[in-house]
Amino acid sequence: MKYDFEGLNIGVAITGSYCTYDKVFQAITELIATKANLYTIFSNNASSTDSRFGESAGFLKTALDLTGKEPILSIPAAEPLGPKGMLDILVIAPCTGNTLSKLANGISDTPVLMAAKSHLRNNKPLVISLSTNDALGMNLKNIGILLNTKNIYFVPFGQDNFKQKPNSMIAQVELIPETIKLAMDNKQLQPVIRSPYEEEG
């Protein structure tokens, strides 16, 4: 499906679920193709940690190359997003369990969380693209809180490896554009719980 988001200001806030970065940057590329204006925000861990999935400097450069804008990397740089009304919609992709739990409990101690807090003050939509190993464990209550919070929407998600990681759930990142489209109309893409990544049997 093709989307026309021309002129829409979309923030993509990136946290430390590094295994999802390839899909997230593909989603950013697809959103740019819709003629949207993209801004990226990185959490402290996302902007400074190297892993087997790549080096942080490389991810920052990719974000700059794709969007043409320097990534937002600090709390002071993220705070003006709300007062200046810079974004029409903010997507946290990937959203780790750590970020999810802090968001549900009103904590804003990283650039991503400050961006979310600052953005939500304007009653504009926030989209969560979940990626956490404890979605069906300690974080289940936080998912419930955020599912029932005004202006917050979820990219549909499901169990990704129920045999080895029964509490783990991950969003269908490819559904970010469709989720954005509906969230801009204050609607949640349904069904929210899907399991396309489950193993057979």
Shape: globular
Main structural class: alpha/beta
Helix segment count? 8
Order of helices and strands: EHEHHHEHHEHEEEH
What is the average of the pLDDT values? 94
Give the tally of β-strands: 7
Rg over alpha carbons: 16 Å
Condensed summary:
The protein has 201 residues and is α/β, with parallel strands linked by helices.
Strand-helix topology:
Blueprint: E1 9-14, H1 21-33, E2 37-42, H2 44-48, H3 56-67, H4 75-78, E3 89-95, H5 97-104, H6 111-120, E4 126-132, H7 140-147, E5 152-154, E6 157-159, E7 169-171, H8 176-183
Parallel strand pairs: 1-2, 1-3, 3-4, 4-5
Antiparallel strand pairs: 4-7, 6-7
Helix pairs in contact: 1-3, 5-7
Written account of the structure:
By secondary structure, the chain is α/β, with parallel strands linked by helices. It contains 8 helices and 7 strands. The protein has helices spanning 21-33, 44-48, 56-67, 75-78, 97-104, 111-120, 140-147, 176-183; strands at 9-14, 37-42, 89-95, 126-132, 152-154, 157-159, 169-171. Strands 1, 2, 3, 4, 5, 6 and 7 form a 7-stranded mixed β-sheet that branches. α7 (140-147) links the parallel β4 and β5. It starts with 8 loop residues before the first strand and ends in an 18-residue tail after the last helix. The mean pLDDT is 94.
